[in-house]
Specification:
The structure is a homodimer.
Chain A: E1 5-8, E2 12-17, E3 22-28, H1 30-38, E4 44-50, H2 56-64, E5 72-74, E6 81-87, E7 94-100, H3 113-116, E8 120-123, H4 128-137, E9 143-147, H5 150-155, H6 157-164, E10 169-173, H7 174-181, H8 186-194, E11 200-204, E12 210-214, E13 217-221, H9 235-250, H10 255-272, H11 279-299
Parallel strand pairs in A: 1-4, 1-8, 2-6, 4-5, 8-9, 9-10, 10-11
Antiparallel strand pairs in A: 2-3, 6-7, 11-12, 12-13
Helix pairs in contact in A: 1-9, 7-8, 9-10, 10-11
């Protein structure tokens, strides 16, 4: 039975330079990508703050996908969270050229009754302090997914570790897993994540796919093969959003369901990287997600 | 119906230093790993040369696995091919500290009638000149697998490209594929490999597994999860050996059979890296390979 998913994280304007292209002040942020991805699978509520420069047309992009914006706050005194980043040759590395918290400097999360009663929560990538503050407001979350990044592992490790113990599923990428576990072996790293307190952990491996470490077993899924990489920004957020949305959508949290959630995540994330911002994610729709899910099943079928 | 597999490449003595351990003058070389791996699946003939320091006990390791050594040459004037290598912290990089061709300096491949009639050929990693010279001697190979490395792509690219056009299946790792195709996108790189003239190409992605690019489809397989990495030397050779052995063993070369060959390769290679030299590869046996094949099937099963 479908349950509601609460997505928290950042809503941002990004200026992005890739080896072949650039775009200015496009809708970005972990919560934007995650909520739009989740919206294909479950009723999705977004908790975030935007500033005085936020465009009505970008609000409409969320509501067009039926994302519930009742808990999206507006800060009339400051601009929207801003990030300027550059991908170097071959997308091998990413550099943050400028980051301004803006509206997030004074962000005091507040949730309405509907959001406080959400059964599924995705703590999208943002500081552990903000993630904790929102989680505190949720009454009885059935399943909490935590996404994070190397920045917080480096600067707010203690807060992050406390939060991990309150979560059911931790999502990191391969280098973050190795950093957290202080090992170069991805299998050892993944198994170590389970000892941090979450019941299960997913290690994303970019163009190779993702691995699930769970008390009931180990699982790997390949990435959908993308020949036209345009902008990798938001791939991880879209993966987490579609995964959490899938679980909320079927109201299940077991090993088999998380595997199917990863399938939804891999298919959805592959659309995000084919354009700047969430354009392909919004445009391609559920039919294309389902087609990509079938294709991923096919390419991972041994016999 | 089972056919004979001819494996060519190097037989070497290696001195290896890993972050945790070291070993001196252990049996190594692409043909040793590949032939021992292949021997679990098909009648295997090895073509290589060893020197005046080669130990009887190491000959017995090959014959104990029924590898046909009729085409293994002995050079009484020179020592065996020698390689000294060091894996740096976390196995992130490997450095060749010393390499001596020794017996391979004057290696003139010669094959007996039995070897010349082999239906399946694995051109294991060695110079394209030696690989070509051996392939010239095989009468009517049904299926030729070519394994190579960055060294030859860098130094003997033209010879290598000529050889690729005579082969059915090219095997490289991810960085070599990107180098050959001059792109950072692994999907674009893999598809480009098909344009070089081989009917199919496998891109190995280390701890993540391998991808097959084939005219009949695309396929990915995860690596068997190894928590106790001891020495990665020979993993690629073992993968290629088991794969080629599997195909010769069933006498098939279609897309579905190559997929199953990759399964055999992934399972077998995972044993190689759990010890120095081929010790675990020899010791664990077919039962363990089959167990690992089943496990890989299980962890890649989405539904």
């Amino acid at each position: 039975m479908s349950e509601k998913l609460l997505v928290i994280g950042s809503v941002a304007y990004d200026c992005i330079e890739t080896p072949d292209d650039s775009a200015d002040f496009i809708l970005g942020g972990s919560a934007s990508y995650a909520a739009l991805a989740a919206s294909y699978f479950a009723p999705t509520i977004i908790s975030a703050v935007v500033g005085n420069d936020f465009k009505e047309s970008d609000i409409k992009r969320l509501t067009a996908r039926s994302v519930d914006i009742s808990n999206l706050q507006f800060d009339s005194a400051k601009p929207t969270f801003f990030w300027r980043g550059k991908y170097h040759e071959n997308f091998n590395s990413r550099e943050t050229l400028d980051v301004r918290l803006n509206a997030y400097e004074d962000f005091k999360p507040a949730l309405d009754e509907n959001a406080r009663n959400a059964g599924f929560v995705l703590l999208g990538n943002i500081s552990p302090a903000v993630q904790s503050a929102v989680l505190d407001l949720v009454r009885e979350p059935r399943f909490v997914v935590l996404d994070t990044m190397d920045l917080w592992i480096g600067t707010e490790r203690d807060d992050l570790m406390k939060l991990v113990r309150r979560c059911d599923l931790l999502i990191v990428n391969d280098s973050e897993a190795k950093m957290l576990a202080d090992t170069s072996n991805i299998i050892v790293a993944g198994n170590s994540l389970l000892k941090l307190g979450a019941e299960s952990a997913i290690v994303k491996t970019g163009e190779y796919g993702a691995m699930l470490f769970h008390k009931d077993g180990f699982f790997t899924i390949p990435a959908y093969p993308v020949a036209s990489l345009h902008d990798p920004t938001g791939a991880g957020d879209s993966f987490a959003g579609a995964l959490a949305g899938y679980l909320a959508g079927c109201g299940k949290t077991d090993f088999a369901s998380i595997k199917l959630g990863m399938l939804a995540g891999a298919a959805t994330a592959s659309m995000t990287v084919e354009s700047f911002s969430c354009y392909k994610l919004e445009e391609n729709g559920l039919d294309e997600i389902e087609r990509r899910c079938e294709y991923i099943k096919k390419i991972s079928q041994i016999q």
